[in-house]
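Dear Dr. K.,

Following up on our conversation at the group meeting, I've run the structure prediction for HTH-type transcriptional regulator YjdC from Pantoea ananatis. I'm pasting the input sequence below exactly as I used it, so you can double-check it against your construct before we proceed with anything downstream. Let me know if the numbering doesn't match what you have in your notebook.
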Amino acid sequence: MQLSLTQLEQFWPDRDALLYDALQFHAQQIEQWRHDILQNDALRPDQKLMARYEGLNEQVNKGRFPGCLFIAACSFYPQPDQPIHQLAEKQKRASWQFTHTILTSLGLDNPSMVADQMELILEGCLSKLLVKRNVQDVDVAKRLAEDVLSIALCRKNGALA
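The predicted structure tokens came back this morning:
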């Protein structure tokens, strides 16, 4: 299918409009994935939390870097009132909410703090992938997230009191 620039400009008058729509489409795909994971009763809560790293690992092995697009968008569009920046922020909030929902279901004493920690690990992984593109970083981030979750569960059960 061949479209002329004039035909494309009917839908995307500038580069920012095209980028916004592409990010919006990608965000919808990620949201559907999160929904599917949350609804999957075959997975335990810890497996649901770690599923993002398994999915990320698969994508990186295919030469794709999902999530990195949103971090890059925040860098290129740092103004908080810019629609692309707002879309990236919305994606970050949705990721945090996904994590928080699962952590809350585990009955942790401070699911918000643990969600902050786990999202920081994920964002660090995505930022590093943006630069290094090394799948091993996904494994390191997953292990660190598992450790944070284990410590939070120990704290919940009184092992660290």
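Two things stood out to me. The radius of gyration is 18 Å. The chain has a mean pLDDT of 91.

Best regards,
J.T.
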